[in-house]
Amino acid sequence: MSYNIYTFAQRSDLNDQADELIEASWSAFMLNDEVANEYYGHLYDWFPSYQFMLTDETDKVMAVGNAIPFYWDGTAEGLPKGWDDVFLQGIEDYRQEKQPNALSALSISIDPQYRGLGLSKQLVTAMKGIAKENGLVHLVAPVRPSLKHKYPLTPMDKYVQWKTTDDAPFDPWVRTHWKLGAKIMQVAPESMLIRGSLTDWEGWTGMKFPESGSYIVPDALVPVQVDVEKDEVVYIEPNIWMQHVL
């Protein structure tokens, strides 16, 4: 299959297709991260050269990659807390006109009908290329393991140690990054915060939450915490920081 890769700076006419694809690629609750709700639009206004699309020969958008540049000192200790924090740092660095030296992946979204074709490798490779083209020296990613939702009660620091029989990372998405040269740096235990009312979460998940406590929600990497008296459901998602060598 032939395809093209364009940045949003090159093909802003495809933005609507890209937005529809992103919305169709994620569970409803994942589209309601508090930081993303406030700032996602700025990715296209302020960082269009770092957002990109993979299209077929008819300009149908097959996949979308989102990333944000920021300044990083190159140490594990200097990494942001996780997905939310690196997003906020990128926004703040831009506002303060601080020169970035690193790119953080935010998401790779693939149209469900094109999954299983190896596009994820092409998208990660494209993101590495975009980082280099813009003079950045680091590429990191707060990786969301693709099978972790099947093991929501397993702590992420244990899950990240699981291996296949040939000593590769157990998780397919972590393994994809690893095969492309990335190394695991550390777990980001509080990478994303998604909070909403019981009504919000019932709408997002199709579940009911009759009493306070922990609930396993489809596609969530860890249980959500429900407080009926406060009318609040909180999901704190762990991710895995990985670094690609450019």
The termini sit apart by 27 Å
Number of helices: 7
Report the strand count.
9
Number of domains: 1
Domain N-acetyltransferase: 21-141
GO molecular function, one term: acyltransferase activity, transferring groups other than amino-acyl groups
Pfam families: Acetyltransf_1 (PF00583)
Protein name: GNAT family acetyltransferase
What does this 3D model show about the protein?
This protein has 246 residues and is α+β, with helices and mostly antiparallel strands. The protein has a single domain, classed as Aminopeptidase (3-Layer(aba) Sandwich). 29% of the residues lie in helices and 27% in strands. The chain has seven helices and nine strands, in the order E-H-H-E-E-H-E-H-E-H-H-E-H-E-E-E. Strands 1, 2, 3, 4, 5, 6, 7, 8 and 9 form a nine-stranded mixed sheet that branches. Strand 8 and strand 9 (232-244) form a beta hairpin. Helix 2 packs across helix 3. The radius of gyration is 18 Å and the shape is globular. The mean pLDDT is 95. Residues 21-141 form the N-acetyltransferase domain.
Task: Compile the SSE list and pairings.
Blueprint: E1 4-7, H1 15-25, H2 34-46, E2 52-55, E3 61-70, H3 83-95, E4 102-110, H4 119-133, E5 138-143, H5 156-159, H6 172-179, E6 183-196, H7 198-205, E7 213-215, E8 224-227, E9 232-244
Parallel strand pairs: 4-5
Antiparallel strand pairs: 1-2, 2-3, 3-4, 5-9, 6-9, 7-8, 8-9
Helix pairs in contact: 2-3
